[in-house]
Amino acid sequence: MQEALNDLEGSGILNPSQTKLLRRIYGRELFSVHWELRLLLYAGILTLTTGLGLLIAKYFASIGHLALLSAIALGCAGCFAYCLRRGGGFSPERRPAPDAAYDYVLLLGCLLLGTLQGYLELRYQLLAQYWNLWLLGSALLYLLAAHYFDNRLVLSLALSTLGAWLGVKTSLLGAGFWDTALRENALVFGALIVAAGAIQTRLGWKRHFLPVHLHLGVNVLLAALVSGVGSRGAGPAFFAGLLVVGFCSALYAQRTRSFAFLLYAVLYGYLGVTIFVLDNSRWDIEGFILYFLVTAAALVTALVAFHRRFRSAE
């Protein structure tokens, strides 16, 4: 078995870390399943929240409004009380969780808070046509919780909710999903997220939050730029912006050895180039088929080669 593993490593099929892990498994040594367990626990929290929502919807009439509100509010308050009791207070640096349940209880509390706000608006229509302000309020509360309790998953939830509020607000003004107003707001939003992460890192405040800002911000920026490549008049400007942002994402990937940012640059860049080429070409159907066959094969080959290069450099 050891010789087979050596041969696989020597031929480049397995990298050193994979070979080491397989040797430990073959030798019946203990190995970490930390991230697998975290994924299962996060999935369990989401499943629990979804199940509670379905249960409430099914037995809504028999349970009663006040009982539901009280149960959700008590559950939310209990989660935050637990985190306040167990947490060590705010710190600008990274702080480890005091116990295994801490992060998951915080996530559950935030989800229950969002459920409570949504139920209040659905039942009593407190804000009526301004209901989108609930999204803004939730996003700000999630941001506060993420920074105070030092939780990157809640930070992702906060930034996503903030983006949802911006999208809903724009659509209520009469813009379509990828209409000009929403596209411009998406560009500003993505740039602000990236800038906020960079400023925090420069100030030495929550440096470990930077990847969350960059992953979301870069995706929003690239998606908005891709959506504008096919627009009339401003298409070339959006295409140029896509190339610039994609190039910056690839440079960051090379500097930090993060394959995800290279993947963003390549995939969004391919979509943008394809849209630009199709809009400015007069090919027949055979030409389109040939283009997709050749470029898709080149894209897959390039991604595999880049991934191997990144793994070999680790």
UniProtKB/TrEMBL annotation:
Presence of the UniProt keyword Transmembrane helix in the record: yes
Domain of life (superkingdom): Bacteria
Domain DUF2157 span(s) in chain numbering: 8-153
Keyword Hydrolase in record: no
Pfam families documented for this protein: DUF2157
Regions that span the bilayer: 39-57, 63-84, 104-120, 126-146, 153-174, 186-205, 212-229, 235-252, 259-277, 289-306
InterPro entries found in the cross-reference section: DUF2157 (IPR018677)
Keywords assigned: Membrane, Transmembrane, Transmembrane helix
UniProt-recorded name of the protein: DUF2157 domain-containing protein
